[in-house]
Amino acid sequence: MQTYQAKEIEAKWQRVWAEAGVHRTDPDATKTKFYTLEQFPYPSGEGMHMGHVRVYSIGDVIARFKRMNGYRVLHPMGVDAFGMPAENAAIERGVNPRDWTLNNMKKFREEQERLGISYDWDRYLATCLPDYYRFTQWLFLLFYERGLAYRKKASVNWCPDCATVLANEQVENGKCWRCDAEVTKKELEQWFLKITDYADRLLEGLDRLPRWPERVKTMQRNWIGRSEGAKVTFTLPELNDEPVTVFTTRPDTLYGVTYLVLAPEHPLVERLIAGKEKEEELRAFIEQMKKESEIERTAADAEKVGMDTGAVARHPLTGETVPVWIANYVLMDYGTGAVMGVPAHDERDFQFARKYGLPIRHVIQPRDGELENPLAEAYTGEGVLINSGPFDGMDNREAIRAISDQLAEKEAGGPAVTYRLRDWLISRQRYWGCPIPIVYCDGCGAVPVPKEELPVLLPEDVTFDGKRNPLTTSESFVQTTCPSCGGPARRETDTMDTFIDSSWYFFRYADAKNDRLPFDPERIREWLPVDEYIGGIEHAVLHLLYSRFFTKVLYDAGLVHVDEPFTSLLTQGMVLRDGAKMSKSKGNTVSPLEIIERYGADTARLFILFAAPPERDLEWSDSGVEGCYRFLGRVFRTVMRHEELFRNRPEARPEKGPARDLYRRIHRTIKKVTEDVGERYHFNTAISAIMELMNAINEYPEDADRGTLADALETGVILLAPFAPHLAEELWHAMGHETSVHEQPWPSYDPEMLVEEEVEMAVQINGRVRDKLVVPVTADRETVEQLALNQERIKNHLSGKTVRKVIVVPKKLVNIVAN
RNA sequence: GCCGAAGUGGCGGAAUUGGCAGACGCGCACGACUCAAAAUCGUGUGGUCUUUCGACCAUGUGGGUUCGACUCCCACCUUCGGCACCA
């Protein structure tokens, strides 16, 4: 008896498939396209981990299933290969970042190949290679031409450990997303992409993505942080009526303003305090607040501290003056960096006013009653305006509009929208990234490198000393000529955030070898959008927001016909062990290669798909893996035991008895697996259905119809093909087939076969199951009711009781209500 | 604090539209095969009580709707995730 030799089977078929090129994208344009994509990996030196195995296994089931269902599938793979680890290896070990990366890429790809995923390797791409990054530069120039890439001096996030700046999205709780170091602020001139121009469209687009998880959409909405209200312009009498504008979501409370607060960094602060009696004190106070880190300043429980500048501001509608304060809780990078204080109707303002003895003026009255005086807390609810001049008696929701309009009329502000989203800071003071294709000329300023001169290649003659951006050490790179005037010029030495590289790679797969353009719009039309995108939740805001932004810009430029890149998003859960995420530092990792070595890729894939539905976290279990290996071994032995059957295949005669039962089981299984894989992505229950079919096959009597048995075995192998592709292929050929099981059409089921002739119904009394009843499916309600009432057990239970009501749910149960 | 997701046997999980809770797998127990072990095959397996028949309890907690609730409604508890002085 042969035994299941996973390693040999897998090596054999991987070789055969590669030689025949079976995973190349189907050229048959008459078929419906399906683009399924797993987030491409960063090829770290450690190679693949179980999280990778999980995404790829999920993607491969979908790809194979769609192919068998007659779709033309695009299923590509590549690497997100720029990034800091390569550079750190260069600093620590003196290796060349390119060689180091290429070596890791090769190892990574070999590991992926051993999983037997059906990728079209012809479309493989690596973001760090010039044939890719020249088009990253091309796209940067497109943004530049469209006014969406600009340079400005700003206070930016700086990670001291990574020695580079970071985008807002890459700072988590004041720490660097990569290395966890405390992020500080630095005043630097940097490149930004104008993602804020797309804030509303990025929000609106979310409403057209029903197949995205709600929580990812919520996270993006939170991040964008759209806030509707009004801008209100006060004036500063002592500075020649210089305007100072605040943003508020509650313009209806404008008559309740009793003070203004500016951020310590506000540009008017310097002029306001100059010459004031308490100037020295104020200056010291401002310095101290500026020194406090972002997190200290913005922690919810941080004490609100402020100081009166001694200056006053004039109210645009009443003409009254109110004091101007400076306080730590007002942030320069949100809204206008200045707020109006309405203590009666804002909790924060209330606290602040109480602490510093500022006046509190009620301007909103609840509809049912009066506010207590003095207030114990701010009243933030709805109501009617009071103490508000011409607006008295107006509903506050109406007043929001009326007061905004009045402000607009007086040219003192008007309706306004503010976002939490900031422009995307993309400069990085690092070597191993895509060079920004800009040249600085003393005469012409910042000049873009012409597209036909791309790529701007990364130089080799650089020094990695860990002290400065290595690019600045390359004379051959820095010294150049101005594309505009031909005079001497310097190159930009910052590289781009690697999230730019991954913001367009899904387009490149559609036309991966184009050497003229990033992609031909016709090829995009052929394949985009991505029908199913699979990846981790950690990119809910980062990669997924940036990619949506890029897509919208490319749409506006007429390069792509879609304005959302991913129709459906599947966020797979983490792989845990002992309840914690696998990580080297915790020492709870399981090596995919070791598992493949020991049990085979089919077992690894099957376990990871069987142990939990894809979106949920998955608890690793060694014995669970054993179980899946045993199952595959059982399938192998079962088919091999019946190998003879396929030499002289008898016609199936499933008319009666066990054959009919098995035949029904086949069709039920097809339905279950088709729906679970095709509609719900519940691979775990699909696998359990196949297990049940195999159990039924093993219980099938020796003397029952052989043809039906052969059908069952064949169907089982076909259904298993997307999950355990190597074993399925091996068994398919053992059954005497010449073609690949993966080219088989997906089986269809006969709906008539799903209808049983007899059904077992539960008989309940007052909702408790007391007996079972087997009836023909055709039996009508009355018959079923009578049968149920005449069951011995039921009669016993009913003795002494009166039947009040009988509910019959056809094919399910009978419930007798009695007391 | 706000928003979101989830709580089901010893474990992973199933129950798709309000209709027999615990499919499938793991683990465990017993048995067959074996000199023995591994592998394999078979049987059983939510809890309590009961010799049996069976009865009762049970899907985080407490209520509600319903003939009937893991599923719907209300309140609460726990865990995880996101946002958080955002004006």
What does this molecule look like?
With about 800 residues, the chain is an alpha+beta fold. Among the domains are: about 140-195 and about 425-500, no CATH class; about 225-420, Isoleucyl-tRNA Synthetase, domain 2; about 590-755, Isoleucyl-tRNA Synthetase, Domain 1 (Orthogonal Bundle), CATH 1.10.730; about 760-819, Roll (Ubiquitin-like (UB roll)). The chain has 26 helices and 34 strands. A four-stranded parallel β-sheet has the order 2-1-26-27, with helices on one face. Strands 6-5-9-19 form a four-stranded antiparallel β-sheet. The longest helix is centred in the C-terminal third of the chain and has 24 residues, at about 655-680. The model has no long low-confidence stretch (mean pLDDT about 90). The chain binds one RNA strand of 87 nucleotides through helix 7, strand 11, strand 15, helix 11 and strand 30.
